[in-house]
Amino acid sequence: MKILVVDDEADVQPLFLQRFRKEIKNHEVEFDFAQSGEEALNYLKDKHSEVVLILSDINMPGMSGIELLTHIREDFPTPPPPVVMMITAYGDDENYKQAMDKGADDFLTKPLDFNLLKEKLKTL
Amino acid sequence: MFVFTYIAVFALAMRLRRSLKFTALYQKWNLPLNLIGWGAVAMFLLFAKAVKNDEIHGIAAALALAGVLYYLQNQPDFKSFGILLKAHYPLVAVAVTVELISLIDESFYDKYDDFFQSAYFVAFGYIFIRLATSKKQQAELKRINERKDELELMVAERTAEITKQRNALQETVKELQATQAQLIQQEKLASLGELTAGIAHEIQNPLNFVNNFSEVSMELIEEMEEEMAKGDLEEATAIANDIKQNLEKIRHHGKRADGIVKGMLQHSRASSNIKEPANLNTIADEYFRLAYHGLRAKDKSFNADLVTNFDQSLPLINIVSQDVGRVLLNMFTNAFYAVHQKQKTLGPDFKPRVEVATRVIGKQVEIIVRDNGSGIPDAIKDKIMQPFFTTKPAGEGTGLGLSLSYDIIVKAHKGSINIDSKEGEGTAFIITLPLA
């Protein structure tokens, strides 16, 4: 299962790789990373069919996670559409509503609860 | 003729008495002056009987007059009567001379007696002529003196008034200075308030990393122990290496949070005014992010393209970094505000963009903060640097941001602030700071 993580913080990458160390080793999941909405869209152009799950930060300079979500839903509607989970430090209702309105499948708040995330992955 | 001498003494005494009549000196001099006046009359009567020689009597009278004049002139109380007293000198001189001539050569005297008598007259008359003119002069002098007193009084009054005003002004200046200091502090706190959300966000991120990396490291240690138990040393070493990297990351993010808190404290603290070498790119970047997240936290719908174009060859420059940081924060906040306002009116088609760039030009450093916001209308361009001028709704802006920025950049750092703005298209603030 290929997962794309979009976050402007570079250290998110080793964190995910270590948190999912066992799963990666057992080839249960595979990670790719993008540091901005623009980069993510570029990546998806070629590989949208491979990506099952997109985890995106909302609060990024330039294209926000919400904009990225809108683009994903508009540009890649071919079934099956990727599952998109939004991640944000601002876990308020307004943010949640906005993300859900734009077609997010789930909404996670920082700091990320990796155990919860793993549980969610199992249901995919 | 010597009767004139007596008349002169009598008249002088009476005149002085009259002059002093309504003054404090009257009490003191009434009796002595009466004695002199009536003494002269008494002397005349006495000498007329006792002294047969008229010339001797005349000289005695003249000497009496001289004595009276000498006495009076030595009294400080009669200082202002100098002219009157001196007017009697000719009479003394004429009396003595004429009587002496008459005494020495009576025939000579008799031959010219008309002339000598006229001399007496003239000398006697001179007293009154002199007196008349001196009276006029005295009246004039008195008038001048009164006027002088009046003027001095006015001057004193004015001086007192001016002194009072000056003191009041000094008080006002002191109050204004205190108010200014207070306003600066308020502006700092206000901008800190704007930062709080940004700071919270900026601290939350590193803290999340600290928590996450330490948690994952604990898991890794367990795994490492398992691998060691299995005897797979190679894998155990690989895990140990990961743990080491994680600890490095924990330290990095801990320091990052530390730096943000330090910066925040520095921002609100009173300025030290000490210029120290600083990296403008770092300062600009830090405040750029803080300002952005600050606004983001307030309004979730807001988003902007953050563009940084830093000249990496920028040398360290001597600045009061917390002050320059405040200026930059103010410029960024303004830029984000401008693009946000435009976004509100134009909707999603508008792509807000804020750029910060640094570059070296000759012996100066330029920092450009450019936005594609609403721009500054020409009508208010020259007002925006004035204290308390703000276009923001009441309560949202202190109107001190740019005015303080001007003080910091232009007055304290000998730099300049230039504005390039087109209404509807955007604004660029160009800050120039001298390199050395």
TrEMBL record, chain A:
Keywords: Phosphoprotein. InterPro entries: Bact_response_regulator (IPR050595), CheY-like_superfamily (IPR011006), Sig_transdc_resp-reg_receiver (IPR001789). CDD domains: REC_hyHK_CKI1_RcsC-like. Residues 2-124 form the Response regulatory domain. The modification 4-aspartylphosphate is found at residue 57. The keyword Phosphoprotein applies. One of its GO terms (biological process) is phosphorelay signal transduction system. The keyword Transmembrane does not apply. PANTHER family: RESPONSE REGULATORY DOMAIN-CONTAINING PROTEIN (PTHR44591:SF3), STRESS RESPONSE REGULATOR PROTEIN 1 (PTHR44591). This is CheY-like chemotaxis protein. It comes from Mucilaginibacter phyllosphaerae. The lineage of its organism: Bacteria, Pseudomonadati, Bacteroidota, Sphingobacteriia, Sphingobacteriales.
TrEMBL record, chain B:
The keyword Transferase applies. The keyword Transmembrane helix applies. Its EC number is 2.7.13.3. GO terms for molecular function: phosphorelay sensor kinase activity. It is an enzyme of class 2 (transferase). Keywords: Coiled coil, Kinase, Membrane, Phosphoprotein, Transferase, Transmembrane, Transmembrane helix. It catalyses: ATP + protein L-histidine = ADP + protein N-phospho-L-histidine. The chain crosses the membrane at residues 29-48, 55-72, 115-133. It comes from the Bacteria. Residues 134-189 form a coiled coil. Residues 198-436 form the Histidine kinase domain. PANTHER family: SENSOR HISTIDINE KINASE, TWO-COMPONENT SENSOR PPRA. This is histidine kinase. The lineage of its organism: Bacteria, Pseudomonadati, Bacteroidota, Sphingobacteriia, Sphingobacteriales.
